[in-house]
Amino acid sequence: MSAFETLYHLMTALPKADGTLSSELVEVVRNIRTGNRQCLLAFPPKVAGTFLRTALVELLGQHYESYLSRGAYANVTLSHDLYFPTLLNQHIVSGTRPGAAVMHLHLNPSRHTTALVEAFDIPVVIGTRDILDTLVSAKNMCDAAPPTEADSFSALGAPWHDLTEAEQRHVLVHVLPAWYARFYGAWMRYSVDCHVRGLRPPLWLRYDDLVAQPVDLIGAILTHVDPTHTYAPADIAAVHERTRRKKADVRLNKGISGRGEAYFTPEEKEIIHQALRSAGEREMIGLGILPDPAVSARYDAPAVPQVAE
């Protein structure tokens, strides 16, 4: 098929208005082989996505022209989305070496999102973190961010910076937990659906594992997104250390595990945890989002290592 025939087929088979993809479009996309690679860090905010994307871009640069892609066209807030022309360009356009697009997007698995992920065969990685620590980190981010960036994630009827302290606390306890519960629950259901349909499911990562075993965790991501190449543990360790030193770029902040436990009252913690239990209590405990009651009963407060936000 010539280039003009390929373009004709693509233009007559673009995604439909309801977000679904025609079988003709999927077939054309899958038949294009350029050696390019794409991966999607579908991380919620404040779960070390910025840190990991920075490390991945450098490591994938050993074999590719690697770069960060925020996915959406002319969208500079946290509400990034997948954008078909951008995906197509990343999929087929190559320079002297194949490209590797690292997409860091705060995405829920809507129908059009999963259809595009499957059509372009994009491996997905999802990060998790203790919900109380996540919320405190989100507060710090919103406090420090310009109004446009803070409001894209956290605003109620008024901008974050115009809310009173009590109203901001209401957002942390009653609004954001519902967002995280929806995010985690929806991706969990999609993961189960992938197993049922025989598709590659997302790779799930725990924030605490980044603290305890960063080389192993980053190595697992690389195996998931680039199984055709090997990455030496020494190289991963070196990149991890260099990334840690880029505090301004990777938003290295306090990153203290356990600070959320001290910030919220017992009543507030119960409200927050109840919201996350709706996504599946056993699964949320296993992913380190909710505390394990059995572990909490046996041990004192956890250590507080410094890691990336």
UniProtKB/TrEMBL annotation:
Name under which the protein is recorded: Sulfotransferase domain-containing protein
Organism superkingdom: Bacteria
The organism of origin for this protein: Asticcacaulis aquaticus
InterPro entries: P-loop_NTPase
